[in-house]
Amino acid sequence: MPDFALPAYQSRSGSARSKPPTIMPDTSGAVRDQRPHVILKLAVSSDDKIGAAGRKPVAISGEAAKARVHLLRAQCDAILVGIGTVLADDPLLTCRLPGMEPQSPVRVVLDRSLRIPGTSRLVHSARETPLWVMTSNLSEAPAAMKLGAAGAHVIRVATTVTPLPGLDLAAVLHALSERGITRLLVEGGARVASSLSQQAWSTKSGCCAGPMPSEPMASPRWTHCR
Ligand SMILES: NC(=O)c1ccc[n+]([C@@H]2O[C@H](COP(=O)([O-])OP(=O)(O)OC[C@H]3O[C@@H](n4cnc5c(N)ncnc54)[C@H](OP(=O)(O)O)[C@@H]3O)[C@@H](O)[C@H]2O)c1
Fold this sequence. Notes:
By secondary structure, the chain is α/β, with parallel strands linked by helices.
């Protein structure tokens, strides 16, 4: 059984309530299948790249697409990235539309061996906006305790070796469903997006196309978008 519940959010009047009604798809199937409805978002440059050389943050999409993504964040229960994105971009993954910050989703990181830095913005903000770190049964207990002390929740799930070694995505989604997540926004990076798109169950994918990059783009090409 889950040891914690979805956070309520404060409405402008100050009363705590669950997420507001949205125009998102019907999630009854997600409840039935014990797996959240998954939306995969990737910003893709005109030459099919999703990141810059040297693993530094780079802006691919424009302001309108960014605003749309922040709205999606507010409409979802959780947002998920892999540890590669945390190490490359140090993202915050909150909704930063004016007035909608309290509707930020739970932030979820796939991190088999708990490499997430204690200095990351995600860990620093774990007491304000929930951070769930999904890891393997073998990751070190002291690292998990440090994250717990910083306000993050560590959730252990099974691993798999195919197609690449990683956390078992079916187990990840089941664990999220058990904790009340019905709408999940996946924001990458390349490995997580690829693993997810190779699963048999349906995923709603969305790409934000960007202009020709002004700097070298060396992250893997994105070829699985549908
Ligand atoms: N354009 C966009 O929309 C966008 C969005 C996000 C990121 N990015 C870019 O993408 C790049 C990072 O990509 P990335 O591929 O290194 O990072 P990633 O996909 O965010 O993270 C990959 C890591 O997640 C962990 N993981 C655990 N279980 C997994 C599973 N089942 N499937 C896949 N990964 C699993 C693995 O590390 P462990 O084995 O250690 O657990 C793996 O190396 C950066 O350049 C970033 O800027 C672009």
